[in-house]
Design goal:
Layout: H1 6-22, E1 36-41, H2 44-55, E2 64-67, H3 71-83, E3 107-112
Antiparallel strand pairs: 1-3, 2-3
Helix pairs in contact: 1-3
Length: 118
């Protein structure tokens, strides 16, 4: 696997953590985000539809995709969100691709996932 670009990874993580903080209940602001989901995909629109149907809601709260440029960057961003910031619904594996024969997952996405939807 390629080496992630630290600048791309750190910038994206800051933006996604800021987004989660800004969209969290004010009384529950902290540096950890256990009610947030983070994942990677090669098509954010299709992934959003899939997660929306799975959660059985009309829309996902605070959905935000972020282009990471490479699979290595996307995976590093997801790892940091889960391991450092406590996004608790991370797969860190799954059906993502780092293969030139298919479209590699180069997007990271986050959204709020309340307990009653898990």
């Amino acid at each position: 696997m390629a080496i992630p670009n630290k600048q791309v990874v750190n910038t994206a993580v800051k933006e996604l953590v800021r987004h989660a903080s800004n969209n969290s209940h004010p009384s529950k602001k902290s540096k950890l985000f256990p009610n947030w989901y983070a994942g990677i995909t090669n098509d954010p629109k299709i992934r959003q539809v899939g997660h929306t149907k799975k959660a059985k809601v009309e829309e996902l709260k605070a959905w935000l995709p972020k282009y990471a440029r490479t699979f290595a960057n996307a995976r590093a961003i997801e790892n940091m969100l889960c391991n450092k910031y406590g996004f608790s619904h991370c797969r860190l594996q799954g059906n993502t691709q780092d293969d030139t024969k298919v479209r590699p997952s180069k997007y990271v996405y986050v959204y709020y996932l309340p307990a009653h939807l898990r």
